[in-house]
Amino acid sequence: MTADPPLVLDVDGTLTRPEGWGIDPRVFDPLREWDAPVVIATGKAFPYPVALCHFIGIPELVVAENGGVVYTGDDVFFTADREAAQAVTEEYRAAGYDLGWGEEDTVNRWRETEIAVNLDQPLEPLREIAARHGLEVIDTGYAYHVKDTDPNKGAGLERIAEHINIDLKECVAVGDSVNDVSTFEAVGRGFAVANADEMAKAAADEVLDEIHADGTLAVLERVRGTR
Ligand SMILES: O=C(O)COP(=O)(O)O
Ligand SMILES: [Mg+2]
Hints:
By secondary structure, this protein is of the alpha/beta class. It has two domains: 7-78 and 151-223, HAD superfamily/HAD-like (Rossmann fold, 3-Layer(aba) Sandwich); 82-147, Hypothetical Protein Ta0175, Chain: A, domain 2 (Alpha-Beta Complex).
């Protein structure tokens, strides 16, 4: 009897179409049919990965907001609060800058533990203000995230693993950016897609030849039944 290893999957850059945007529909069936837990670990606001699990048709196991929010399927944990990040972005706005998402800002509307800023906005003043407030800014290649230095995806995964009783050393992860480094450090086998940034590539056990969902689909083929 062979079994599939548990999976930890990033979203942007990892489940996306090779063009870079939008979930690649080819990942839906293999993930729904996977016979082990699938954790979605993302920088996106909490409702996005919950909705993704819902629409794929898999149990909701979610690390959101770069570890600020963790959902074990039973309980939600918050490991940071939004206020500190909010104070940074208010100062950024007062200095004449903008978050870059338009008036209704659905990127941050339901974000509970950090604030994301559009990549087309100036980074240096944001970094400078965040540092004065004791926060950090990480660049995922999809957004700048103003966050507490503490939470990360890896710590969130540990909480989920404890709750659903899986061994992180048996887990296979795929990711593409600096916010996946802690994931790669936490799991047994970490794969960086070919479009990954240098930090993710350095932390991964292996860098794939394929980009985006092509890379993730290649990993699924390789690790299916290898636990
Ligand atoms: O929200 C982002 O900036 C990136 O999201 P990801 O962690 O799913 O790639
Ligand atoms: Mg990503």
